[in-house]
């Protein structure tokens, strides 16, 4: 692997103009494809294999001309203090609004609260239901404006009017996630490298990769069903991994230049070593993302495929475009003092990452940061690694206990899909939700839709009545609506209102009770029925995600274990990597539950309402974080193994690995945290949850697991960490991630500049 990538980088460096033109041509081609492509589809809520979806499909079949997920607006009227909505003036204002909206475009029906008995007992609150013939995504601006104007006129009449439902759903406030991530990344890179060019190159290549990936996703959106959500995730991951992969190659290039190699050979060595780690780190991310298909949710599968493609583009750019760009400006990425010319640098090793050091690894008196007396200041990564290797037991116990304690709240994880109750109080949906809960009870916002199939019943009307009566007699149900039959009179829909809110555990128990009692009800009535609606759908999705989590973990961890065993030629190192990942993801889930479910510190993060954790969040977090965690595992441990292969004792190999990679891994983690954390600036609670979860997981994994847990375990295992049974050693392919074959070569530096197109002489 290392030798092959070494040759690729030599070619890219020599043919740098060709390489750059090819990437620009690819960007132009996919951009043209995106411009001329059909509009991308909206996110699909289809979830095959769950009862709620089957009921929706039955509604679409038996009620032709209407869509089960058609847009709906629930207009809530609240009278002023001391008044009632049934008063003459207020009733007139309500009726006027209903009549105006009923004649609007795309409206299927508008039901007055006085005709549907939708008035609270104290007559302070009422609601009108407006249904549309199309989905919320297909509503025209004219339809939305007609409803908005009617609402404003009712407000002018003195009523408090709010609108819930999907018809006028408020778009969440847009954050500055991408901009903030890039700005923080630029600052971190500038501090790490001390060079504008070195800081700008990873940003440039990351933006190039994201541009190609987003344009490709847009171009293929119609054919493959990629929605806008696929592009958003791809952009978030593309920025993070694209910057990181280029960062590792550029830092290794500077290190090789500091050892005296000319630019072309330094670029080739950087790609042959750090690039090998990039390849296998990228493969682990791809495995984790493609593994989302195991869950069985089409939307997650598409998100995984689109994001995996983005990661692959980032890997290819790091292996080809980065050495090509280094060929154009071979010295620009070096620190200023190393660009001063040979006379200023003769007699010392230049470079921030490769300064002259004594046998213990400390900088000599020529290095930056030494005292006037010449006493070297040891890099922080070396000092920390030495501390951990001297006290591995204490560090290991503290790490495991600390992360374990943070993970404890995850045992109380409740999954669901937050609705209007999680929106800010500044939105009309949230105010409508609160008004309905106050006027009609908490369960009114989460009714259960029961689809009754009476195709085989002798007396369809009696069968539906029997089902309704049994539902009304179920504990936890406060009311059941009159049945609504289709034209063929073989299917009816009834709405059952629970006594508890849609996110309540008691509501989940109620849905389970109704389904458990179904055989007896169907036997007594001769009708079949299914429970659906938003509340039941959220419950079913949560259960599906929970059931899929363990198989998904098994597939992803198993495949990654095999890959890491090939990379490190060890059994215990992949086991350690998997255990460390479980600690970090457990702590991240615990932090999410603490903030977003239990509400501790919620105000600090701008979370106005707590509730169940988004159903897809645990699986999503596991997939993304596992791939990113293996990035740090490969980059850090490959340098430790490289030092061990070259003859260093296990403890010293850990120190050497940290000397070369701790600073860069830390910078990479900060960049990822900035990219993910930037998404918390948006107004949507679910987006904040994703940003918070990913940022905290990266923090735990990079700064706790990889910087403390990993070196402590390696120090305790010693040489046993690299043990591999002889038979397995012969069976596994050798990929040479550490570049061992390259180090056996005696490099003969030529006197040409870094822009010389001739390949340097090599003797084996």
Write up this protein.
With 764 residues, the protein is α+β, with helices and mostly antiparallel strands. It is 59% helix and 8% strand. The chain has 25 helices and 13 strands. Helix 9 runs antiparallel to helix 22 (650-677), helix 14 packs parallel to helix 20 and helix 21 (617-645) packs parallel to helix 23. It is elongated. The protein starts with a helix and ends with a strand.
Summary, kept brief:
With about 775 residues, this protein is an alpha+beta fold. Helices cover about 60% and strands about 10% of the residues.
Main pleated-sheet profile: 5 strands, antiparallel
Average pLDDT: 80
- State the helicity in percent bands: 55-70%
Give the uncertain stretches in residue-range form: 342-375, 746-764
Query: How many separate helices?
Result: 25
Bulk shape? elongated
Structure summary, number of beta strands: 13
**SS strand fraction:** 5-15%
Global structural class: alpha+beta
Radius of gyration: 31 Å
Question: What labels describe this entry?
Answer:
elongated; alpha+beta; 764 residues; disordered C terminus
Element layout with pairings:
Elements (H helix, E strand, L loop, with lengths): L1 H13 L1 H20 L15 H12 L9 E7 L9 H15 L4 E5 L13 E8 L8 H16 L3 E6 L11 H17 L2 H24 L1 H4 L3 H31 L4 H28 L7 H31 L13 H4 L34 H11 L1 H16 L7 E2 L11 H13 L7 E6 L6 H13 L4 E4 L3 E2 L5 E8 L6 H12 L1 H8 L2 E5 L1 H35 L3 H26 L15 E2 L2 H29 L4 H28 L7 H33 L8 H6 L8 H4 L2 E3 L12 E3 L1
Parallel strand pairs: 5-11
Antiparallel strand pairs: 1-3, 1-4, 2-3, 6-9, 6-10, 7-9, 8-9, 12-13
Helix pairs in contact: 1-2, 1-10, 1-11, 2-7, 2-11, 4-5, 6-7, 6-9, 6-22, 7-9, 7-11, 9-10, 9-11, 9-22, 10-11, 10-19, 10-21, 13-22, 13-23, 14-20, 14-23, 16-18, 19-20, 19-21, 20-21, 20-23, 21-22, 21-23, 22-23
